[in-house]
Design goal:
By secondary structure, this protein is α/β, with parallel strands linked by helices. It is built from 13 helices and six strands. The longest helix has 19 residues, at 143-161. The chain starts with 6 loop residues before the first helix and ends with a helix.
Length: 285
C-alpha cells in the first residue's frame, strides 16, 4: 500500500538502497532475497512510498547484512517514528520540503558541518538577527506568515540544542558577513556576542571565522551543509528558498568533506576566532 513519502521514510529508503548497492544486487535480486514478488516493491521502499513494519526489521537485517547494533537502532527509530506527525504536518505551508527534510535531519544526524558565508546560519542566529533576515528574505509575506516561520525556526533550534545526545555542529563563517550591519549595528553586535556565548556554553558547537585578510578560500562555490549519520551514509544539502539538493553519492559527499576540511584550515583556530568575534563586537559598539 502506498504511503506518504515522509522524510524518515525517504531516509530509510536511502539506507535500504545503500545496503542493496553494497551487496551489488539489482532490484529484482533484492526483491527475491527479501521475499517480494516484484522489484517495484523494493523500488517503492527505496523511494519512501512504501513503509516497513517493525516486525519486518529482523528479516531485513538478516538478508541485507545489517549487523551493527548502532545501525540497527537507527533503522528502528526511522521505522518506529515513520507515522509520527512531521514538521511539515505540524506547520503546513511553512515547514514543507525542503525544510521538512532539514528539520528531520537535525533529529537524526550525529554531526553537522555548516558553511553559510552570506548570513549566519539559522541554528546560530540571535532572535533579533533572525527576524531581520526573515523580513528581508520574505518581503512579500505578511506579519502572520513571518511570525509562523520564526516559530518553526526557533522550535528547530530548540530541537537541535536539547537532543538527548547533543548534535555536534562545526560552523565556519567569514569576517565580512559578521561585519555586515544586518538590522543595524546593535543587532550585528548582538549576533557576534551570541556566537561567542554559543561556543562557550555548548561544547558540541565549534565556530571558526575566516578573516578578511585571508583572501581566497575553499568555499567560493557557495554554501552547503554536510551531515554525518550513524550508518556512515552521509549526505550534503545545498539549499535554495524553494528547493534543496540532497547529495548522497559517496564520491560527491567526500568532495564536500574535503572542502569542509580546507575551510577549517582557511579559518582561524576556534580560540582565535572567538577573539576576532569579540573585536568585531567592539567595533560595532
Amino acid at each position: 500500500m502506498a504511503v506518504e513519502p515522509t522524510p524518515r521514510r525517504r531516509r530509510l529508503g536511502t539506507e535500504v538502497r545503500h545496503a542493496r548497492h553494497r551487496l551489488e544486487w539489482s532490484l529484482d535480486e533484492a526483491a527475491a532475497n527479501l521475499g517480494y514478488n516484484s522489484a517495484s516493491t523494493v523500488s517503492k521502499i527505496e523511494n519512501g512510498t512504501q513503509g516497513i513494519k517493525p516486525q519486518q526489521l529482523p528479516h531485513f537485517f538478516a538478508v541485507l547484512g545489517i549487523t551493527d547494533p548502532k545501525v540497527q537502532d537507527f533503522w528502528r527509530e526511522l521505522v518506529r517514528n515513520a507515522r509520527d506527525p512531521n514538521w511539515h504536518q505540524e506547520y503546513p505551508g511553512i515547514a514543507d520540503d525542503p525544510l521538512g527534510d532539514y528539520l528531520v535531519n537535525l533529529e537524526l544526524a550525529d554531526g553537522l558541518f555548516i558553511w553559510s558565508p552570506v548570513g549566519v546560519h539559522g541554528l546560530l542566529q540571535h532572535d533579533d538577527y533572525e527576524r531581520q533576515v526573515i523580513l528581508a528574505g520574505r518581503p512579500s509575506k505578511g506579519e502572520e506568515d513571518v511570525q509562523r516561520f520564526i516559530t518553526v525556526r526557533r522550535n528547530c533550534r530548540h530541537t537541535a540544542f536539547t537532543r538527548k545526545t547533543p548534535l555536534p555542529i562545526w560552523a565556519v563563517l567569514t569576517e565580512a558577513q559578521l561585519r555586515q550591519e544586518v538590522g543595524g549595528r546593535t543587532t550585528a553586535r548582538t549576533q557576534a556576542l551570541h556566537l561567542i556565548d554559543l561556543a562557550r556554553a555548548h561544547p558540541n558547537i565549534v565556530i571558526q571565522v575566516i578573516p578578511l585578510s585571508h583572501g581566497a578560500h575553499a568555499g567560493f562555490d557557495g554554501p552547503f551543509m554536510a551531515w554525518t549519520f550513524p550508518t556512515g551514509h552521509h549526505s550534503v544539502t545545498i539549499e535554495g528558498m524553494r528547493a534543496a539538493l540532497h547529495l548522497t553519492d559517496p564520491a560527491t559527499v567526500a568532495d564536500y568533506r574535503t572542502i569542509s576540511d580546507h575551510l577549517k584550515t582557511d579559518a582561524l583556530p576556534p580560540k582565535e576566532s572567538l577573539e576576532l568575534l569579540a573585536r568585531i563586537a567592539k567595533d560595532l559598539t
